[in-house]
Amino acid sequence: MKTQNNRIRLYQQIPGPLPGFDPVWPLNIIPQTTNLSSWDNSTTWKHSIQAYHALEKVDEKFQQKINYQFANINIGTQTSFGAFASRSSIPKTAFIVFGLDNGGILNGPNFALYDIVAHELGHCYLFNNIDYDLSEPNAVLHEGIADIIGTYVENFILPNGTDWIAGGEEPSIKTAIGRNHQIFSCYTDYDLTDTHQKSRAISNWFYSISDGIPSENILSLGIEQSKNITLEAVNRITDSKASVYTFKNI
Predict the structure, then answer these.
(1) Which of the chain's ends, N or C, has fewer CB atoms near its CB within 10 Å?
(2) pTM for this predicted structure
């Protein structure tokens, strides 16, 4: 599964865990399918077909709404839990991976959902400005802005717009992720020890200024202007180790 110009390639059952930098995937694991528009009886996993379809939709919105086009996008699928992005030394090159729910059942619930695909592609976009060091504050900033990008892109794909919940279209994935951007979260909450959960302080800020919260005297700017403010702030970041506080003070 790949585009004719090889700009987008999907690799099924990628070997081992996702490396942190410049993964190498063999061409012989690019699967074949007889029909991209429906689930067929080929050996291609359903979540591989879903990942390819979702990526095409997300990539289109990245170009139209964020004004950014990747030169190459490599999608990997695996049976492990979760979704991941990896940095590349090649400019405008993305490596993103999508797995299954905890049960690991092929053709069952998986992470190749619009907002999650856009979230992982968002990480690859953010690598231009911000590093990702899991034990450092820049990881929280990365996750928060990636959630903003995921929500924003999803808003222009789903018929009724975004639901403001990560993985909200798949109940088991939504539960596993546990990130509702509408729920207030403070970065310094003592019980938030997970990078993804701490990042809700950023995604909730985006929700708040996009939709507005009258009871808190927060006016709605709309999702488009809120996105513009976010990306303008990202473009002003000059420190690759930038934290939530850097973002707050720009």
Answers:
(1) C
(2) 0.93
